[in-house]
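Hi V.,

You were right to ask for the full record rather than a summary. Here it is.
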Amino acid sequence: MFKCPNCLKITELQKVRCSHCGETLKYSIAQKFDILAESVESALKMELKNRKKGKDT
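Predicted structure:
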């Protein structure tokens, strides 16, 4: 899942068109990899933050 560059709503990366606005989504394999890597990094940072917060209580 990622934000559509046109409407900024969350849509699936493997779609050819945004499920909200219909914008054609054109990404190379390298660009898709980068988007996925950024998503994983963000999720891991959030998990670490939540775990640290849990230890403080």
